[in-house]
Amino acid sequence: MQRLWAPWRETYVANLSAKQRDCVFCRILADRNDKKHLIFIRKPDACAVLNLYPYSNGHCLVVPGRHVGDISKLPQEEYAHLMELLREAKDLLQEVFKPQGFNVGINLGRIAGAGIPGHLHIHIVPRWRGDHNFMPVTADTKVISLSLTVIYKKLDDAYKKRHRETRK
Predict the structure, then answer these.
(1) Measured between alpha carbons, how far is residue 162 from residues 38, 50, 87, 92, 168 in Å?
(2) Is 121 a catalytic site residue?
(3) Which domains are delineated in the chain?
(4) How confident is the model at residue 120 (pLDDT cuts 50, 70, 90)?
(5) What average pLDDT does this structure show over 11-24?
(6) Annotated catalytic residue, options 37, 59, 81, 121
């Protein structure tokens, strides 16, 4: 069996301390400072936010507005809104960054890899041919070519432009 080491995840895992009792998603949703928290789409019962520890440019999360840990616990209407936002965020990423594919996934429970198991979230990871290379394995370095601030601005601008055009 081959192993792929991901040492950059240690920063993320180390920050999941027991003293952090409140949910990070609930906290940023309540704060309503979308730019600070990199929320580029906010709907009444869900949001799309950039991942602070991305695997690639534009890696984001679609998060329900309510603290719920399992997709089965969402009422049909909330589930539909979450899926609509997933599609909208994915389409916005496609428009802005033009990836050649996407990984979309949900980790349900800590054993399945959920870093924040109490609050459901869906990962959208844009992918390009050759986007993951030898750097993380041989040099303990992950290459993300754009800063989160630049990515946020591009997505926020495109989202605002899209909605200005639909209101005309």
Answers:
(1) 18, 19, 14, 9, 10
(2) yes
(3) 17-167 (3.30.428.10)
(4) very high
(5) 63
(6) 121
